[in-house]
């Protein structure tokens, strides 16, 4: 039996750096993101996207990544810890990549995140660790690409998030839409 879904680590950085330092807790603000994190905001904060169109909504307020990926990466010879790939929340016991668009994640007592799509891993990952991008963008059986870089979300309800917090998934009504890069 797999463990109940939970938060392993939380991370935030006030600067546009690749990795984010882990914290004992983070404050999450509805419609904004993680307080003090450079990617928080109502409008897009990702630098390349902001240059293209600074008026687009921020669908990437909180980035979540599954800790099980770190086990895969270790087996391939890469030592990666929570926050080092730029994620805000490291989870365990939850298949983030299989969630449909619009799934709600209730975290701890108060926080509600709505999944908006997949993170599209970029070349910066290879700057962090040589050839790591090949581990995060892998071919599937149909000739497509599996993006293992986690999921992005927006904050529907704020609160405090800490390692150890339980995660409950609420699936959206109607047909489930597979995640696409945002």
From TrEMBL:
Signal peptide: none annotated. It holds the Pfam family MOSC. Residues 20-170 form the MOSC domain. Gene3D superfamilies: PK beta-barrel domain-like (2.40.33.20). PROSITE patterns: MOSC. One of its GO terms (molecular function) is pyridoxal phosphate binding. This is MOSC domain-containing protein. It comes from Sediminihabitans luteus.
